[in-house]
Every structure is written in C-alpha cells, then in structure tokens.
Write a structure and sequence with these properties.
- With 271 residues, this protein is mostly helical.
Length: 271
Amino acid sequence: MEILHYTFMQNALIAGILVSLAAGIIGSLIVVNRLVFLTGGVAHSSYGGIGLAIYFGLPIFLGASLFTVATALLLAWLTFKKRHLSDTYIGLIWAVGMAIGVIFVDMTPGYNVDLMSYLFGSILAVERSDLWFMGGLLAVVLLVVHRWYREFLAISYDSDYAALRGIPTGRFYTLLLILSALTVVVAIKVVGLILVIALMTIPTHIASHRSATLYGMMMRSALLAASFTLLGLWISYRYDLTSGACIILVAAAGLVLESLWRSLRRPKSPA
C-alpha cells in the first residue's frame, strides 16, 4: 500500500484504469472487425504527430490526437472499398508517419528527449492534465458505443446485411477508426506506441473465449486489461522495471495460462 502515498503513483493507477477500460471496449470492436493491423498502422504513424507537436511547441496529446485522427480518416477513405490493398496503404502510412516524427524531432533546435518513453510508455510521468484527457476519452467511448451499439454490432458480424438494412457502414467504419486512433494516443502514455496493440488485443482474445455477446466481450476485456495494467504496474514498481513492458508481459502470461486452461479442459477424443 506504500505506493499509494506518492502522487505520481496515484496518477499512474488512475491512468492505467482509464486507459485499460477504453482499450478493452475499443479493442473488442477492433478484433471482431479484423482491424488489428490497420490500428497498428495508426498507432505507429502517431509518432508523426508527436514529432510535429514537439517541433511546434504543442501539447503532445493534442498533436498526436490531431495527426492520428487525420491518419485514421485517410486510411478509412483508402481501405473501406479497397480492402485488398489495405496492407499496402497501412505499411506506407506506418512508415511515412514515423519518418515524419523522426525528422521533425531532429529539426527541433536544442531539443533532447528520451524517445524511448514514447515507444515503451511513461505511465509514471502522467500528470493531472493527462488524466482529464484520458477521462474525457473514456466518456466519449462509452457514450458513442452505448448510443450506436446495435449499429456497431451489425457491421461487426455482417456488414453486407447491415448495409441492406440501411446502416451507413462506411460512416461507422470511419467512426470506429477515429475512436481507435484516440485510444491509441492515450495508451501511448501507458505502454508506448510499440506495445499499444498488445494491450488492445490480448485481453480481448482471452475475453472472446468467455463471452457469448459483444457486450460481454467488451466488459470482460476492459476488466482484464485493467487487472493486467495494475499488476504490471506493481511489478514494475517492486522490481524497478519498465512499466509498459511489465504490463504487456503480464497480459501475455495471462494469455498463456488461459490457453493452457482451455487445453486441459478440452475433452479428449476417444481412441
């Protein structure tokens, strides 16, 4: 309990819970819609927004958010009707976004920053202003998913049928990518842009085996993500290790244990 006596640890715990809840909900939609690789492209391209924010002296969250939303809109436009070319577009935008970030950081006069904090997270450096941004994002995610849950459910399992029912599938596809982009931005502070996809997919994969509905998958995934984050944060504090890496390794261990449990419970076929 001694870790709760420090303000930076209090902020880290709150940030971990807020981001984990958002990542669990949006991660479920990403996995069901098979948009993991596309979201990975958005995550890595966000480095371009970080570089622009550093160069122009803007808040990191603001610069990264604007850049990733623009990237999500561009990818939605390029890939919605050309899914067979999505890998090409994602790889291109992934590389260009990171290159833009590196160049603008290099061009910033007198700026010397540990870029590893953006690659692997710096949850212990979360400030109160960051918590307001994370809380606002979680509120937006909850409101949007609650308001249009049936539409997201329809496009997730049968987009062609949803289109026949008059649901604007392209609009909700774009909205999902925008929410994914914003979730990626806040999760960068917790686990970094390299590990963010793992936080959004590992809990969802585990939850998918225990859930009969999309709603149940979202709830279980959010709770699992929060549990992994808190346990990983405690381990990083206890043994003085990088917090983002500890969180993901805890999640990976949970995935392995769950897979072993399912294999042991699977009935053996008769000889």
